[in-house]
Protein: Imidazolonepropionase
Amino acid sequence: MSSTVITNIAALVTNDPSLGRASPGSGESESGGTSRTSALGLIQNAAVVIDGDRVAWTGESSKAPATDNRVDAGGRAVIPGFVDSHSHLVFAGDRTEEFNARMSGRGYSAGGIRTTVAATRAATDAELEANLVRYLTEALRQGSTTLETKSGYGLTVEDEARALRLASAHTDEVTYLGAHIVSPDYADDPAAYVALVTGEMLDACAPYARWIDVFCEKGAFDGDQARAILTAGRRKGLHPRVHANQLSYGPGVQLAVELDAASADHCTHLTDADVDALANSRTVATLLPGAEFSTRARWPDARRLLDAGVTVALSTDCNPGSSFTSSVPFCIALAVRDMGMTPDEAVWSATEGGARALRRTDIGRIAPGAYADLVVLDAPSHVHLAYRPGVPLVSQVWRRGVREV
Ligand SMILES: [Zn+2]
Structure:
């Protein structure tokens, strides 16, 4: 194994709370503290030492130990690779017409998923895998070094298992979402579909997945159905996460907390009791502003969650229907502009926040022992991710100690 130092880093985001430094201008004390902005653990004039696939050392450039190789960051900023903890990348077809219609004045409903289900069932394995790899590569080029992805466009035993088998060849973070919507084949008998999702389909899918998810929403699955689905998954060793409170108020968030789900995703329509439940739990609130952008919906209130002490993650929800972006930097810019997050908070939520939403401690930070997953920005500060929206600032991506971009 060889060692490499990346040196001459103007600003290094470590997410190592022991360093406790916030960005200049963020309003946080330079001497540290316990707030989430200080949790960014910023080091100026910094270096990172990579040994094999892990981070071995971080600190000031002048104190870096000797290594085999040396890379000069040229005064750029370095941040942890983005942890995109919510995407739907096993699909075929696209929904340009639906998007165009919606942006011409028609509302969004969960039913549009059926279009993608039909296209996905009709695709060959090779077509689905090529599409998946295309979007994983696109995400990597934009700095995402970890990506969770889900099934949910097959909705038959064979098609859901196929989606998860293909996904598991490309990522460790695979989620069984047979309960995306009630399959059109069971439109007259949703209870029979829930029985399938919790029975034969679960048996076929569990070997390929780490997580189980359900779209708990009017028009999809109600609270009782969602509880039955998630608890069945748990008995098979899958851990819960929930599409919760996206389009309306409902039981999703409370159910996620009750079942110790790793994440409640969307969290757009929350009561005070929902916010309190999240604040008093280990369940992360994963916000997906690409969905609100692409459906012209009301933004989730990140400020309210952060002020209540909720752990917040930011993710793309990349899918062909309601959020066809693989760009975490775009989501950071939206979160800062429209959801009340500071730039420091948004970058933290897209890295360490995503890691927490996947219950991982080996990614999302640049600290000794963590995987050497990091992004060199073509900018002197991570703040530029929000300050320069839409500009491709990712200039290098390192994953597991190897430069990939
Ligand atoms: Zn989703």
Observations:
- The longest strand covers residues 69-80.
- Residues 247 and 257 are 19 Å apart (CA to CA).
